[in-house]
Design a protein that fits this description.
about 260 residues, alpha/beta, TIM Barrel, six-stranded parallel β-sheet, two-stranded parallel sheet, 9 helices, 10 strands, globular
């Protein structure tokens, strides 16, 4: 299986209409503008697996969604259908059909994840399903035994429930290590995705770089993520994404602290 060194891979989280405290979301109007740009520039927008199979030398881009929020169906799906685009969606299996209690939820606003019916509908429309683990932990903060359980069980649950082959895993918070990549390989995955790393050079199928798309991104930022403005603009976007990811990683630490505090009460 080849790599994605020359294929932009974009990472979305929420596509929502109302403000939330955080940056890992975009408005439907932003998403529409971005997808329309890809369509007008004649990009081939497909899933991770389909992009690897396609030998066409034309412009390619991969769209991914982490967490499989309900708003994907409500706000993003029809836009992608309008342009005949497909995406890879990474699912947290313990929270299918439930609210995102794994997250800190600043502002006390919780978001619903898609249920199994929603996920089957996406599969029927040609979308790809990947694993985002069972419970969305920072894999670098738990034992390797638990890492194996998170990766193996989530893959099996998705395959059993949806009748599809799960080829890719998205490491929660973009955190991983050489040992975690090896466990993913041993669990039967074909590759893994992370988030921006400004100085990454090697093309590793278990360390596929993605550029996150956030609420503060303009259409020019979006173009930069596609490498249309040169290497320095790409480096800026990667550094910005790395900064966002650094603070997002604090979510797991805060949730652990909250849990520990509640246990002592």
């Amino acid at each position: 299986m080849g790599g994605f060194k020359n294929i932009p891979v974009l990472a979305y989280h929420k596509v929502i209409r109302n403000f939330e405290w955080g940056v890992t979301w975009v408005l439907p109007s932003q998403f529409l503008e971005q997808m329309r740009f890809l369509y007008q520039r004649e990009y081939n927008v497909a899933t991770l697996s389909d992009s690897l199979k396609d030998k066409d030398s034309g412009r390619k881009v991969v769209i991914t969604f982490d967490d499989a929020y309900k708003d994907l169906i409500n706000n993003a799906f029809s836009i992608m259908q309008e342009f005949s685009f497909k995406a890879t969606v990474f699912v947290v299996t313990d929270f299918v059909g439930k609210k995102n209690l794994w997250d800190v939820n600043f502002g006390f606003r919780k978001f619903l994840h898609m249920d199994w019916s929603d996920l089957r509908y996406l599969c029927s429309a040609g979308f790809e399903i990947g694993s985002h683990t069972q419970s969305h932990p920072d894999l670098t903060k738990i034992s390797l035994k638990k890492v194996r359980g998170e990766l193996f069980s989530s893959k099996k649950i998705l395959e059993d429930k949806l009748g599809v082959s799960v080829q890719f895993v998205s490491y929660p918070f973009g955190r991983y290590s050489g040992e975690i990549k090896q466990i993913a390989r041993e669990c039967g995955y074909s590759g893994g995705v992370c988030l921006s790393h400004p100085f990454k050079v090697e093309d590793d199928i278990f360390e596929i770089e993605r550029e996150g798309v956030y609420i503060f991104d303009t259409i020019d930022n979006f173009k930069a993520k596609l490498s249309l403005y040169g290497k320095w603009a790409v480096l800026f976007e990667k550094t910005k994404g790395r900064t966002v990811n650094f603070f997002a990683g604090a979510t797991y630490i805060i949730k652990r602290f909250q849990k520990s505090f509640q246990c002592r009460e």
